[in-house]
Amino acid sequence: MIQGTTQLLGVIGDPVKHSLSPVMHNAAIAALGLDYVYLPLPIAAADLPAAVRGFEAIGLRGFNITIPHKQAILPLLNEVSEVAQAVGAVNTVWRTARGWSGTNTDVMGFLAPLRDRDWQQAPAAVLGNGGAARAVVAACHQLGCPEIWVFGRRSERLQRFIESWQISPLRPRIAGYSWSQLDDYLPQAGLIINATPVGMAPQAAASPLSSEQIAQLPKAAIAYDLIYTPRPTQFLKQAAQAGLETIDGLEMLVQQGAAALEIWVNQPVPIDVMRAALLTQLEG
Ligand code: NAP
After folding, report:
1. Core-most of 96, 165, 175, 223, by most CB within 10 Å?
2. pLDDT tens for residues 190-249?
3. Where in the sequence is the domain holding 58, given as residue range(s)?
4. Left, alpha or beta for 243 (phi > 0: left; psi -120 to 50: alpha)?
């Protein structure tokens, strides 16, 4: 029930109407019986500074950030975590006595299904060099992957991506390669991650790798697709057919949300409730 004491959370972006975050967070808030509500907050890029001042004025407790504000929010914050600085993007902000604090829970979200294994002998191959690939690189570094190979289709963009890590506080062991060099590296990869939109509508029948390329991966390799709809993607279908363990993007979405909510409400949150709410929404 929304009442006079209800505290405000939300997601800012442009657009936000397709965001799954309100469904996931409000389900958890209801299950915990907390006096909070999580709102979609559409904010145009030019209005971001005014919006953040307004959030302070109305006492908003915290918010998630989606496209196009994930980088633009950084100079408006009083504190940014080391991991968010390294990624160069913030997806979760909360209010402290010192002002707005921000971090990037996509990194924790990506890591969650990969914890409790030894990655010291498992190089990671990342397909794509966009925003999500940045969180993936930080996460693979945290896991302890000995090397991170990033495959990009545009050499200048890829070069800039790799250079940005050389001046980051994390200093991952990272190298960039063209798409045509994949066949040289796939036989040694321990983790292969699709961080491109290939496999998502309108390219739902496509895969970033051919079946022949997937067959080159070691049998112990894990195929991870950041895409959460369709489930499974063509890439993960091919990987499962080749006998590989597969992980799709739903768990990352759930876990980044759970990590954000835990920061705001300062208590453990019901991840099962959040996952179920997302599945109902996605399958409904
Ligand atoms: P982005 O910033 O636009 O980056 C996309 C990357 O994919 C770019 O490097 C792009 O290359 C590359 N790419 C696009 N089409 C390609 C193609 N046909 N062949 C080869 N490379 C191609 O997007 P993003 O935000 O990183 O998102 C990437 C994917 O991750 C999306 O499917 C998104 O839904 C998913 N995602 C999932 C979660 C989750 O919680 N599960 C979170 C974030 C993102 P160029 O640089 O050359 O354009």
Report:
1. 223
2. 999 999 999 999 999 999 999 999 999 999 999 999 999 999 999 999 999 999 999 999
3. 7-103+251-283
4. left
